[in-house]
# Entry
Amino acid sequence: MNSTENRKPETESPAVCQDDSDHPREHCGVFGIYGHPEAARLTYFGLYALQHRGQESCGIVVGDGSRVTMHRGLGLVPEVFNPAILDQMPGHLAIGHVRYSTTGSTLLINAQPFVVQHGGQMIAIGHNGTLTNYREVRCRLEEAGSIFQSTMDTEVIVHLMARHKGDLVESLTAALGQVQGSYSLVISTADQLIAARDPYGFRPLCLGRLNGSWVVASESCALDLVQADYWREVEPGEIVVMDAHGLHSHKPLPPVPPRHCIFEYIYFARPDSLVYGQSVYLVRKRLGAALAREHPLKADLVMPFPDSGTYAALGYTAATGLPFEMGVIRNHYVGRTFIQPSQTMRDFSVRIKLNPVRDILKGQRVIVIEDSIIRGTTTRSRVKSLREAGAKEISMLVSCPPHRYPCYYGIDFSSKGELIASQKEIDQIGDFLGLDYLGYLSLEGMVGATLMDHSNFCLSCFSGEYPVALESDFSKTCFENDICSPSHNETLQPPVCGRP
# Structure
């Protein structure tokens, strides 16, 4: 196996111009293709389309029928890959991954796809989701002699597979029967591609066709970019195998009621994607229309903080007849790094990204549409900038209920203590943000906008009712906290996968 890795400093998270602490962090995105002579290049474009799902690291593994080639690195897809690298990755099948860490820190050693050698073949795996019992499973495996290379939950799956005698599907079935939580997986060998989804269907995963090739992706926007036709979703609890004999579906796990993550509709997924069989764009417009029914306010204009609230704002204006305006303009050329301002330049990280349009806002009653408020600190600074631009009255409407509980199924929400809605009542939040009025969409209004039944969704971040049991003190770095001191973390070295 050939292996190349982009070795930026491993303890250094990519420097990003971040002012989005009021939104949950992305999770991950996966992509796979079988039966195309330019598998690596198409996977690159698939990951490019899924970049919004994770910006910490990315990787591609390619198989040509007899050998596997891998390249991974910290950073964005175009920072880690270039045409010369892709030209050195021949093969007809590939899987790729973009990562935002939900377990394990931002280290190259934790980048995916994760690759191991077992039973005379290379196995690569990419994972979107979080295994809620991985600490217990990992400790049990280590007591039995397993040696781990990373601190992420995904690695326990390949160790469990290695302990089962059988073909790849049988081994994977045995492994998935021992883990709990959320997973949408792509797995490859030199000649086989597998996609799998947890029985609850927490995270999305879809299948597409590109001429005679099979494509799998976290979102359909990735299929669109590579000009593949959307075929169907990978069903909850399904294992799909793509090889020289075609596509084969297996459903070996006991069925359970689905619990799709509703936040894919509210915030995470791209608006041009189909998720759970529906258009994200249209769901967000219906969320805005539901806000209009529940909060019919008087105002001079409706505006979003781009890009998060844009489509719900369109729905609100269509339902109310109020004019839609872009009251703030986003700087699309803010890069991943910039010279840090001095302490005297307050709120710089907010102003560098979004700048108010004074002539639109001055003397106006403004309704701001947002999709979520997590901590409130960034939103407070943004509201202040609207006041300074001359807005006479500022109301804010949020297209989901208050977030009072963390997510443990693949989204890096803040801890409960950092969630503003777990500490304050709605009127107190409004006062903290400097608003004249704050309104949230009801749980019933949110679910109704999806045109799906309430029972289809995981709503734990709003209700605190978790469908899958959690380990005590669960967090994304819980295993590192158990076994690593800070100095140990800083000296972890990446493995050289598959080399003799």
About this structure: The chain has two domains: 2-259+485-491, 274-333+347-463. The mean pLDDT is 87.
